Amino acid sequence: MRDRISPMLTEAQIAARVKELGAQITRDYAGKDLVVVGLLNGVYPFFADLTRAIELDCGLTFMQASSYGGGTDSTGEVVIKKDLDCSIQSKHVLVVEDIVDTGLTLHKVRNLLLDREPASLKICTLLDKPSRRKVQVPVDYIGFPIEDKFVVGYGLDFDGKYRNLPFVGVYHP
Ligand code: IMP
Ligand code: MG
């Protein structure tokens, strides 16, 4: 039912911004031992594009946390479904997320990873909905700040669907 989706960010807009973020991250982490941690599932296209725009020999790995049930509203409970498969001790960690909404997911993931004594921990998100924040979490790299709209595409889903749209659009239920 793609007629429920109105375009917000085009493929070209996303690609241009992802290149800029990759260049900035490349400069900021030059000479450092970097591990990029992607939060599954929503991050998959952003992670693939962003990491290919980072011109460093970094480690790449994934975690999965979940705070959403079926619909468009958070349950507030964050569960770690898949943990890292490598040590991050003394490494520079960049956590990559598709969207920061209430902040609850990243708050939990950040505290969990900080306990493992990385050299540093920063967060990069494609989209940020600052007006929805329930808990403050420092976000260091932001692709696009957006209004409080439920969006799908480029990894973001509604009820498991629309992740494979190449653009980001607003979902109208
Ligand atoms: P938070 O814990 O509330 O910050 O939510 C983070 C997660 O909620 C994201 O990784 C997404 O999976 C999901 N989410 C939040 N807003 C949206 C949206 O507008 N569309 C699709 N998923 C969303
Ligand atoms: Mg997600």
Which descriptors would you attach to this protein?
173 residues, binds magnesium ion, six-stranded mixed sheet, 3 helices, alpha/beta, 22% helix, binds inosinic acid, three-stranded antiparallel sheet
Describe the overall structure.
The chain is of the alpha/beta class and 173 residues long. 22% of the residues lie in helices and 35% in strands. It has 3 helices and 9 strands, in the order E-H-E-H-E-E-E-H-E-E-E-E. The strands form 2 sheets. A 6-stranded mixed β-sheet has the order 4-3-2-5-6-7, sandwiched between helices. A 3-stranded antiparallel β-sheet has the order 1-9-8. Strand 5, helix 3 and strand 6 form a beta-alpha-beta unit. Helix 1 crosses helix 2. The mean pLDDT is 94. Inosinic acid binds next to strand 3, strand 5, helix 3 and strand 8.
Approximate strand percentage: 25-35%
Average residue pLDDT: 94
Distance from N terminus to C terminus (CA atoms, Å) equals: 10 Å
Number of helical regions: 3
- Estimated radius of gyration: 15 Å
Poorly predicted tracts of residues: none
Oligomer: single chain
Q: Into which percent range does the helicity of residues fall? A: 10-25%
What is the number of E strands? 9
Return the string of H and E elements: EHEHEEEHEEEE
Instruction: Characterize the biggest β-sheet.
Output: 6 strands, mixed
Bound molecules: inosinic acid, magnesium ion
Q: How would you sum up the global shape?
A: globular
Strand order of the largest sheet: 4-3-2-5-6-7
Secondary structure category: alpha/beta
